Amino acid sequence: MINKLFFKLIPMIICVSLVSTDCTNHSRKINAIDNNSSKNISNTINDYNHASLELDDLSKHIKILDDAIPNYEVFLTGENHFVDVNFPLETFFLEYLVTYGNIKYFLPEVSHSIGCGYDEYLKTGDENILNELCKKQHMSVLATNQNIKDWKNLKRFYDTLPQDKKFKVIGIDVEDMTNIAADYIYKKLSIVGNLTNFPLLCEFKKVYETNDLENQNIFRDHPIYQITEKIQKDLISRKAEYQKLFGGNFFDISMVIEGVPTTHGSDDQITDLNIREKQIVKTFNQYMNIILKVNIMGNGEVHIFH
After folding, report:
1. Phi, psi dihedrals of residue 304, rounded to the nearest 5°
2. What is the DSSP letter of 140?
3. Which H or E element spans position 121?
4. How is the beta sheet containing 295-300 ordered, strand by strand?
5. How many domains does the chain have?
6. pLDDT digits (tens, 9 = 90+) for 244-258
7. How far apart are CA 49 and CA 200, in angstroms?
8. How far apart are the C-alpha atoms of 222 and 152, rounded to whole Å?
9. How many alpha carbons lie under 13 Å from residue 192 in its C-beta half-sphere?
10. At what angle do helices 250-263 and 112-124 cross, to 10 degrees?
11. Using an 8 Å Cβ cutoff, are 143 and 134 in contact?
12. What is the pTM of this model?
């Protein structure tokens, strides 16, 4: 049974069609970072049947929502779906909802580790974080120069906000890009204290340093998956010790550790998709237990129902 809180916090859905196409009518090639992703993406996208929205027109007509916005807490927009012109629209709606809807949390359709990376970029302005994050999402709609450009635009907007208006980026999707999840865990292990009492974490560092993690598709037979699954079980049985070790980072790293074995929990795609849907709802509810009553914007990168 899905937690009633999930329904309570979604009284309104803004289903914005960012281009006049449905999921089967993709349009225009996107400027991929590397040649391999450019070639593969181009093979699946056709240059036909597209009509983009003009931001100037949208800025004028969206005013119709001004009076309604204060009545709602959760807003969903989407979807980008491999179309360059949709990325600026995602930024546009976020800026609008932060300004008029008092949005405190932005939930793009990404994993927890990727969300943490985006949030760190907004806070620090370190473009190495952004570039590395996008490059490692190869074969993804997010591995594009356009995505990098729009996060930079979002950073400029973020910097104009007073401290009490700044928002946090959260990823509630599964860790399907396990290479990025592994990077995140490894970085957190590098800044904590003595790991002598955590042999599995020591083993994780060795596995990370001695295995190829360039391929994002790390399945159940990969050592990084297997050691993370062991750590997840150890974390459950020794929660207080892990909390003391990671301090304020405990929630984030525990979410990433849980997300890796959850992502590839079966041998068939349909079952994995069902697991994904349940995990997204579970993660959302876990956040709601922490952040309670705040306003949230979620954006579907590929399919809005996620």
Report:
1. -65, -30
2. S
3. helix 112-124
4. 74-78, 295-300, 103-108, 168-169
5. 1
6. 999 999 999 999 998
7. 53
8. 34
9. 24
10. 140
11. yes
12. 0.77
Query: To which residue do tokens 């093979």 refer?
Result: 43
Q: Is the pLDDT of residue 60 over 50?
A: yes
Give me the domain span that covers residue 222: 178-261
Sort 186 into a burial class: Cβ within 10 Å, 0-12 / 13-18 / 19+.
Answer: middle
Helix (H) or strand (E) holding 77: strand 74-78
Look at residue 193 and tell me if it is in a domain. Answer: yes
Decide if 269 is inside a domain: no
Q: How far apart are CA 57 and CA 225, in angstroms?
A: 48
pLDDT tier at 146 (50, 70, 90 boundaries)? Answer: confident
Cis peptide bond prior to 79, omega within 30° of 0: yes
Under 8 Å between Cβ of 55 and 92:
yes
Q: How many residues does the structure list for the chain?
A: 306
Average pLDDT for residues 261-275, to the nearest whole number?
67
Instruction: Yes or no: say if 9 and 292 are a contact pair by the CB < 8 Å rule.
Output: no
Q: What is the pLDDT of residue 75?
A: 85
DSSP state of 202: H
Tell me the per-residue pLDDT of 1-33, one tens digit each, with 9 for 90 and over. Answer: 444 443 344 334 443 433 333 343 333 344 444
Alpha-carbon dihedral 154, 158, 164, 168, rounded to 10 degrees = 50
> Which residues lie below 8 Å from residue 134, measured CB to CB, with a gap of 6+?
33, 142, 143, 144, 147, 148, 151
Looking at residues 273-279, what average pLDDT do you find? 79
Q: Using alpha carbons, list the distances in angstroms from residue 84 to 24, 27, 154.
A: 16, 9, 16
Is residue 257, in this structure, part of any structural domain at all? yes
Rounded Cα–Cα distance for residues 193 and 180 (Å): 22
Whether residue 57 is contained in a domain is answered as no
Q: 267: burial class by Cβ within 10 Å (0-12, 13-18, 19+)?
A: exposed
